[in-house]
Amino acid sequence: MMRALVVDDEPPARDKLRRWLTEQNDIEVIAEVGDGISASQCIGAMSPDIVFLDIQMPGMTGLEVAAQLQATTAPLLVFVTAYADHALEAFDLNAIDYLLKPYDKERLLKTLDRVRERIPNKALHAKTIQLVRKQSGDTHRLLVPDGEKLVLIERDTIRSMQADDNYVHIRSGERRYVLRRTLQDLLAQLGETHFVRIHKSTAVNVAEIAALHPLFKGDYEVQMRDGENLRLSRRYKDALFARLGK
Fold first, then answer.
1. Are strands 27-33 and 175-179 parallel, antiparallel or unpaired?
2. Rounded CA gap, 21 and 99, in Å?
3. pLDDT category of residue 70 using cuts at 50, 70 and 90
4. Residue 107 is assigned to a structural domain of this protein
5. pLDDT per position as a tens digit, 13-43
6. Domain, as residue range, for 75
7. Which residue has the higher pLDDT, 85 or 172?
């Protein structure tokens, strides 16, 4: 049984897709939502096998939702759009398929045949996310948990990111957020030109570095603009100095 999430900001479009999907014996529609943040919340909480994802939505597009997903755990994606240029873009991204509105049941059934073939291929799910990020460019906003809800924060407000097992602690302004992601995956999403590793488990916003202070035996401490001091590992010293032109 494939568990499906339907994401579309138009209720009639959601109703039609849900009705046709529920006619299939091997598909269970576990939820339907009308915006990107709700979609991300459901993906994280419900772990669907497949997401029918509208591209053009207010606030957060379907491609932005896809770019926020962790490649290793992402569900299968089918992009849905009323705009042919977006549909072609989704197809170029090597997504499972796309549905161009208005589509009929025959077109949906063809898509489902492809879905059934590819659901077990987790490498394909990951490749889709990687290609989405490549096509979309660096993410300027990051979706993070804030209590019981998800909020978008601007990339430039992030001061530092510190990994702790399977989580990353993010400092943004005066706030701290904890995200279940890997540091490497976040750097790939946000763009490594904006951040630099100073330790295997720590990356900082280059623009937020105020000074470097030598310690002993070649070690350094990184002073951030807000006064926080972080240890610079020798392994990453040369790369940091090169980024700062030292």
1. unpaired
2. 14
3. confident
4. yes
5. 999 999 999 999 999 999 999 999 999 999 9
6. 2-136
7. 172
Residue 53 belongs to what H/E stretch? strand 50-54
Tally of domains in the chain:
2
What whole-number percentage of the chain has pLDDT above 70?
A: 100
Mean pLDDT of 150-179: 94
So what's the pLDDT on residue 244?
87
Residue 142: predicted pLDDT: 94
Beta strands at 2-7 and 175-179: parallel, antiparallel or unpaired: unpaired
Whether 212 maps to a domain, the answer reads yes
Residue 3 reports pLDDT greater than 90:
yes
How far apart CA 43 and CA 128 sit, in angstroms, is 16
Q: What is the CATH number of the domain that holds 197?
A: 2.40.50.1020
How is 99-152 classified by DSSP, letter by letter? EESS--HHHHHHHHHHHHHHTT-HHHHHHHHHHHHHHH-S-SEEEEEETTEEEE
Look up tokens 């049941």; give the residue. Answer: 105
For 188, residues 6+ apart whose C-beta sits below 8 A from its C-beta are: 133
Nearest to 145 by CA among 173, 174, 169: 169
Q: Examine the domain organization and report whether 186 and 130 are in the same domain.
A: no
DSSP category for residue 189: H
Is the same domain home to 20 and 79? yes
Shared domain check, 211 and 107: no
> Could you tell me if residue 31 is inside a domain?
yes
- If asked whether residues 76 and 125 sit together in one domain, one would say yes
**φ, ψ (nearest 5 deg) of residue 67:** -65, -25
Q: Identify the H or E element spanning 177.
A: strand 175-179
Model confidence, pTM = 0.85
